[in-house]
């Protein structure tokens, strides 16, 4: 009984220290708003495995070989008009990014090409917010060589607590089995001054 009297308080203290230590490491790794404004956001290489898909869209990671960088092969197999609206194949942007990017002029860039087999000739890209104020789909024509496709957009200031935004790609809005390759998705903050916000 005496051992229980010491064991439980010590166990609780140890667990509290472990949780506190883990949280402190988590906070240490989180970029500041100034870093997000300066560095923006880039998804490439192994990070492309984190692309998220929903009904009708697909992503397959292809590892780097020789001079060819790692990339994700994207395609859709359901016409976009036949399913509820969503962000296609997308990179989720956490609440820190939503807060830092809100009200800033952003440049979204996708480095992409047509796939070698069953090549897609055009795709759509967009920025989605947790609330109202999405960019709307921006259509771009693909080529057989790697190229950068960009558009600029200013997401609105959030009307509630920051949530998750999305940088999305729709690889063909019909049900044709055509595909594209994506090597990089990048967001640059064009007005990255920390004054005034």
Distance, first to last CA? 58 Å
Question: What structural class do helix, strand and pairing data support?
Answer: alpha+beta
Radius of gyration: 21 Å
Q: What percent of the residues sit in helical stretches (DSSP H or I)?
A: 10-25%
Tally of alpha and pi helices: 3
- What is the CATH level 1 assignment of the largest domain? Mainly Beta
At CATH level 3, the topology of the largest domain is Jelly Rolls
Could you please describe the fold and organization of this structure?
It is a single chain. By secondary structure, this protein is an alpha+beta fold. It has two domains: 30 residues; 154 residues, Jelly Rolls. Helix content is 21%, strand content 33%. The chain contains three helices and ten strands; from the N terminus they run ααββββαββββββ. The strands form two sheets. Strands 1, 2, 3, 5, 8 and 10 form a six-stranded antiparallel β-sheet that branches. The protein has a four-stranded antiparallel β-sheet with strand order 4-9-6-7. Strand 2 and strand 3 form a beta hairpin. Helix 2 packs across helix 3. About 11% of the residues have low confidence.
